[in-house]
Prior knowledge:
Elements: H1 3-23, E1 29-30, E2 44-51, E3 55-63, H2 65-71, H3 79-99, E4 106-107, E5 111-114, E6 129-133, E7 136-146
Antiparallel strand pairs: 1-6, 2-3, 2-4, 2-5, 3-7, 6-7
Helix pairs in contact: 1-3
Amino acid sequence: MTSTNKETLDRLVAENCLKLFKDYQLEIRAGVPGESVATERFLLCGIIGFTSKQVRGALVLATTSEPLERTNPSASPSHRDWICELANQMLGRVKNQMLSRGVEIFPSTPIALRGEHLSPVLQQRLVAELFTAEGGVVCVWMDCEFSDGFEFPEARVCDAAPVLEGEAILF
């Protein structure tokens, strides 16, 4: 994957993370550059894989308990269900933006991991975005591989608008 592909994708993921939590009335802020996520105690991690002709990989969303509790619209879903739903919504937002650039991805079913000190293995290719919220931390990263020679379009390449977030429910 070229650095341009990675930069474009990282920007889409970070922007959509901010928007997702804002839609649940939780303002998150970008962490300090170089700030380590290894010291945070993440409660749960939602992971959702995806594939397409051009790219395959997984989106990972990890949070401490506070952002989960503050964004959960109902007391009935468990933290596991809620982190999976947030990861699913996040990938859906990224998918919409990728589709407008001519890249269609097909998500899998999200899963949750529970543990203490969950954090990405920080490599040069894999950059985690760390966000802080009042009383908690959110971390998101996308690990993926693009097909040889693929260049991720920076701007829209098709005029068809995807369904906007929150406007469709499919069963």
